[in-house]
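Re: [ENG-882] Designed sequences occasionally contain unexpected residues at chain ends

Forwarding the minimal case from QA. Structure tokens:
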């Protein structure tokens, strides 16, 4: 397995198959770290970190807004298919509240691309 331990999704740690939903997990980790200054599941050793990740044992500091907590919690769901999709993420109230019209006008449109199997 490759990757930074603090950013791995539960399905990767458990050796299960994974897909693009791991990117949503990682986005949740990044959001938390940007707002708090450290990853949400960081512990003194890798085994403890992995246990907290697999249990989604997340502790939010009091200074985080309700909206930020809600967004992060929707990205850090144990079941990959329960994670908020990118399109819905851009509609989340906490994101909408912080998007200026200038930034909004430059956002790309998201369209599902069918993958080709060889």
């Amino acid at each position: 397995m490759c990757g930074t331990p603090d950013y791995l999704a539960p399905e990767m740690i458990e050796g299960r198959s994974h897909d693009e939903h791991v990117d949503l997990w990682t986005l949740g980790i990044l959001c938390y770290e940007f707002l708090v200054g450290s990853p949400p599941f960081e512990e003194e050793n890798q085994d403890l970190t992995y246990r907290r990740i697999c249990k989604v044992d997340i502790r939010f500091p009091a200074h985080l807004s309700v909206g930020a907590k809600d967004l992060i919690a929707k990205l850090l769901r144990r079941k990959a298919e329960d994670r908020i999709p990118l399109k819905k993420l851009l509609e989340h109230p906490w994101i909408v509240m912080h998007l200026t019209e200038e930034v909004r006008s430059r956002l790309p449109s998201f369209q599902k691309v069918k993958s080709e199997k060889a």
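QA comment: On inspection the terminal residues look reasonable. The radius of gyration is 15 Å. Proposing we downgrade this to a documentation issue.
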